[in-house]
Write a structure and sequence with these properties.
CATH architecture: 3-Layer(aba) Sandwich
Strand content: 25-35%
Number of helices: 8
Helix content: 25-40%
Number of domains: 1
CATH superfamily: Vaccinia Virus protein VP39
Largest sheet: 7 strands, mixed
CATH topology: Rossmann fold
Order of helices and strands: EEHHEHEHEEEEEHEHHEHEE
Length: 226
């Protein structure tokens, strides 16, 4: 699990080798911040609650988010790719992020084992573009899946639920049904432009599409403004 340490204004990062085609890797290796507006938005709106951050990759968001959390708040980070999770753990250690709980698992609508493509069939690593597939094959690994309703204690107030899960958003949101209805968090969802679906699934929250930040669509619960 080779990699090197790079730094930007928020902290230090264990960056995996062989993934220079990925924008997050290029930006951090250049000493820059990946998705600076997304991180800034989450820092400004988190308030006193927790953040759920699924699709952690090597932890490129973690130092920037960690320093904005309230004293008793936590980041619940999830990363299914074993190599990426290893580097995220290293990033946490490099910055002594004591308010981050990292789980090497996918978020879904059921707990168990799912098939997850971590490499091309040629063997090239996919990194942050790893994704769910229907069955086994070359470059596919079996990884653990969890439901957020059981992976995050329900008595933890969640301010932001952020998903970068490569097309698995519906399953991940179903798995967070009770968290969403109880805490009505801001949703930050990569390329998930389905406001009517959200309103049907979570009518008590009545989400509205509020804005776009980089490739993420922000949904606010009824009565919330930014």
């Amino acid at each position: 699990m080779s990699g090197h340490v790079f730094e930007n204004i928020y902290g230090r990062y264990s960056v995996p080798d062989g993934l220079d085609a990925r924008p997050a890797v290029r930006r951090v290796k250049a000493g820059e911040v990946y998705e600076p507006k997304t991180i800034a938005f989450m820092r400004e709106t988190v308030g006193a609650g927790d953040i759920i951050h699924a699709g952690t990759f090597f932890g490129d968001f973690l130092p920037g988010l960690s320093s904005a959390m309230a004293d008793d708040a936590r980041i619940w980070a999830f990363e299914p790719n074993p190599v990426s999770a290893h580097h995220a753990a290293e990033t946490i250690a490099l910055n002594d992020l004591t308010n981050v709980t990292l789980t090497n698992a996918a978020v879904s609508n059921q707990a168990g084992v799912i098939h997850f493509r971590t490499h091309e069939e040629t063997g090239a690593p996919l990194g942050g573009h790893s994704h769910f597939v229907e069955g086994p094959g070359a470059g596919v690994e079996e990884v653990q899946s969890v439901m957020l309703d059981f992976a995050v204690p329900l008595d933890r107030p969640v301010s932001i639920l952020q998903l970068d899960v490569e097309g698995h958003e519906i399953e991940a949101l179903w798995g967070a049904y009770h968290i969403i209805n109880r805490w009505k968090p801001i949703l930050v969802l990569e390329e998930f432009d389905r406001p009517r679906w959200l309103r049907r699934q979570f009518p008590r929250v009545n989400y509205d599409r509020a804005s776009r930040v980089h490739g993420n669509i922000v949904y606010l619960p009824e009565g919330r403004s930014i």
